[in-house]
Fold this sequence. Notes:
Layout: H1 14-18, H2 21-40, H3 46-65, H4 73-87, H5 91-110, H6 138-150, H7 156-169, H8 173-177, E1 184-187, E2 190-195, E3 205-208, H9 213-220, H10 239-252, H11 263-275, H12 280-287, H13 292-304
Amino acid sequence: MNTAIITNNSQTTVKQYVDNKVSINHQVNLYLDHVLLLANSKKLSMSTFKTYSSKLKIFIKWFKETPAQSSSLKLHLQEYQAYLISVYTSSKTINLLLSITRGFFKWLFQNDFIDTDPSSSLINEKDDVKTKKSWVDQEQQQLIFEYLRTAKGSTAKRNRAMIIFAISTGARVNEIANVNIEDFGVHNGKKIVMLLRKGYKTKDKSVIIDHIHDFMTDYIGDRKEGALFVSNKGAALTSDSISRIIKTVFRKVGIDSSTVTAHSLRKSFAMKILINGGTVMQVKAALNHKNISSTEIYINDYNEYKNPGALLATFDF
């Protein structure tokens, strides 16, 4: 094997490859020599070579200047993808940059500079994906919670708790439907709730709920077990029922749009993170996205409507 800039086995950390700056410069030059050779032999155009050269510099500059947030090399490359999403609005541009970066790592692997190709974590973005669902802005949230604070009836308190839980945790509707009272607890001094996240078989993902714990405790009352949200007859509410109830509350305050649904509360949660200075990777983790491309939808929306006055950074329940 040639002098490696990275390996991807259990003994190697991101720090080891990030620290090896000199080898990177050398290997980038060797790779570009390879691409130039293809151009000279007419297998690639000279314009393609120039594109590879200029776009690869973007990755190398980021690579040298950005501290790794994870010891996983694949996750570090996802951080690069998250950086691209935060800077570029066109999926075509992002995908071109990802493709060139993948080509570089593939060449390194094929020529024994690395023992594993980690670039499989760089998955192309969908073509200029725009979300189909809206979030609820500051004015709408104020209308919702003013109504819920004064609403009468046996289900009013439950509905308020349901919407507060959704907008404060970013949980999917089906995840909310699966929450039981037994899932609430304390870990490392923090109040938490365990969620059965999408794609998982057990409730091993926790969300900190310090800011809504007292309200949820008051809503739960004397109940010790069973579904968190139930019907008047005590039966656990299904995800469809929860979606329908939330949509009904929206209509009560005059929000009657096909683009504003229960999922809009999850989007509002993501917007809050971004407004308060959160990163793309923090949104990805908070929403439990497996692929950064799913998070791109939220970033696109935030970039398009980046107006702090139009969104609520803190919630008044």
